[in-house]
């Protein structure tokens, strides 16, 4: 079993952080971390620095691509609060697996993003990863020696990337005549509708 929990304080309300989570993914908003490192692996990820309205629709069951092979599906979506992604994959190729196709080699993991408001203008973003895998004897050294160091670097980069983007867009709202709780493209009421699938 593999589990990590990391968090960062963001000087922005949850409504200003949530849109950045909705557009996560390869071919979408990216992952806001070290794109050059990701692209050394041929992932073709390009993190955006703006909220893209066309990427603000996400529903349970949707795929959030990690690469051309696919990615995890949305398991839980609580608008403005929680996004949980889940995937079973071949740990050596990165290809998705169905439960019936797992065989003796598999990695099943969840990736949870939780927004915890600390006051009217601040948020604690928590990211928790949990994974189980088999065979233990083969994969445990790989997880400890390769996955964990890479995951540590890239996830801390992601936390910092989300923080910078959310704080930047939140700070720009007053200059545009926005109100507390507004998102970079509209009011809280409008943004809540955009979080849901049609």
Structure description:
- The structure is a single chain.
- The protein is of the alpha+beta class and 198 residues long.
- It has a single domain, classed as Alpha-D-Glucose-1,6-Bisphosphate, Chain A, domain 4 (2-Layer Sandwich), CATH 3.30.530.20.
- It is 30% helix and 25% strand.
- It has four helices and five strands; from the N terminus they run E-H-H-E-E-E-E-H-H.
- The protein has helices at residues 14-22, 35-40, 136-172, 188-195; strands at 2-10, 73-78, 82-89, 106-119, 122-134.
- It has a five-stranded antiparallel sheet with strand order 1-5-4-3-2, with helices on one face.
- A hairpin with a 3-residue loop joins strand 2 and strand 3.
- The longest helix is centred in the last third of the chain and has 37 residues, at 136-172.
- The chain is globular, with a radius of gyration of 17 Å.
- Mean pLDDT is 81; it is low at 175-198.
Reconstruct the topology from this structure:
Blueprint (H helix, E strand, L loop, with lengths): L1 E9 L3 H9 L12 H6 L32 E6 L3 E8 L16 E14 L2 E13 L1 H37 L15 H8 L3
Antiparallel strand pairs: 1-5, 2-3, 3-4, 4-5
What is the structure about, briefly put?
It is built from four helices and five strands.
Shape: globular
Q: What's the CATH C level?
A: Alpha Beta
Main sheet makeup? 5 strands, antiparallel
Rg from Cα? 17 Å
Number of domains: 1
CATH superfamily: START domain
Q: How helical, in percent, are the residues? A: 25-40%
Query: How many alpha or pi helices?
Result: 4
The mean pLDDT is 81
Number of strands: 5
Strand line-up in the sheet with most strands: 1-5-4-3-2
**Which structural category do the helix and sheet elements fall into?**
alpha+beta
CATH topology: Alpha-D-Glucose-1,6-Bisphosphate, Chain A, domain 4
The CATH architecture classification is 2-Layer Sandwich
Strand % is 25-35%
Q: Which H/E pattern describes the elements?
A: EHHEEEEHH
């Amino acid at each position: 079993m593999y589990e990590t929990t990391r968090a960062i304080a963001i000087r922005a309300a949850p409504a200003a952080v949530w849109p950045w989570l909705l557009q996560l993914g390869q071919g979408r908003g990216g992952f806001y971390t070290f794109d050059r490192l990701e692209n050394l692996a041929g992932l073709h990820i390009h993190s955006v620095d703006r909220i893209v309205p066309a990427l603000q629709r996400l529903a349970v069951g949707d795929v959030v691509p990690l690469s051309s092979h696919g990615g995890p599906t949305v398991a839980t979506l609580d608008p403005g609060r929680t996004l949980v992604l889940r995937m079973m994959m071949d740990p050596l190729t990165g290809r998705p697996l169905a439960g019936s196709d797992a065989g003796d080699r598999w990695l099943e993991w969840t990736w949870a993003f939780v927004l915890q408001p600390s006051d009217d203008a601040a948020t604690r973003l928590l990211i928790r990863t949990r994974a189980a895998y088999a065979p233990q004897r083969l994969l445990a050294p790989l997880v400890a020696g390769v996955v964990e160091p890479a995951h540590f670097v890239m996830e801390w980069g992601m936390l910092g990337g989300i923080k910078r983007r959310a704080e930047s867009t939140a700070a720009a709202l007053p200059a545009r005549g926005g109100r507390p709780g507004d998102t970079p493209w509209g009011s809280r009421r409008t943004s809540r509708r955009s979080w849901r699938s049609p």
